Write the structure tokens for this entry.
Amino acid sequence: MENIFKTELKTIRENRPLIECLTNNVTINDVANAILAIGASPIMAQSVLELEDIIKNSGALYVNIGGISEDSLNEIRFAAKMADKYKKPIVFDAVGAGSSKIRNEFTDEFIKNNLAIIHGNYSEISYIVNKSLNSKGVDASIDESVSMSEIALKASQITNSVIVATGKVDYVTDGKVCYSIENGVEEMQLVTGCGCMLTGLLASGAAVTENYLDSALTITTLMSIAGELAKKGMRGLGDFHINLINHLSTINYIDLKDGAKIEKC
């Protein structure tokens, strides 16, 4: 894993890929700062008047449905067509899938695209497989008797995309091999935007490689270990928020190599 970690971080920081982000207004600033922190370059263009030009020159498209409207969904549809036209990887954050009819319908529609990576919490990834409503929505809880690794594998097989399922344990799979990551801290679920930031980082990684499994494994581990480092010495959640960006900007492959708790499922 050491070579994978080292190569991914170095490639992002040397190439500074442009990442087009269609994300929600609640976390847009955090997403931009996280992407900048690891060495990529975010742009948050929204108008169909410029999306084709922006995506043509971008390394990847990041789509987040945390805040949705008729206009935003149409912008996402157009952006996906442009990403397909210019062969740019699409990374999708299925925020709230399973919590409302409109989110479910759009998720069902959007995963038919050629998506490089899909990120969601346990509930959101479970929706892709089970198609059931879950009032928890953006919370990460599911029936603990369910094997999340099996659900993630099935979701990957259904969508033909790398799946990143985040919760107490994170799972990354391409439908053939599955990895569990037991890093991270509870505070990451208590600060708004950590999931959105992770998806922006996943898009940054996807922009510089076609090995989306190794990239997603590296980036998910990176985010979790940055969370562990951010907790040290914090006085409260405000410190954690600031520390997280600090550690994303300074983390290196040795931090990943020494700290990663990765196992094959």
User: Anything to note?
Assistant: The chain has a mean pLDDT of 93. The chain has eleven helices and nine strands. The first strand starts at residue 18 and ends at 22.
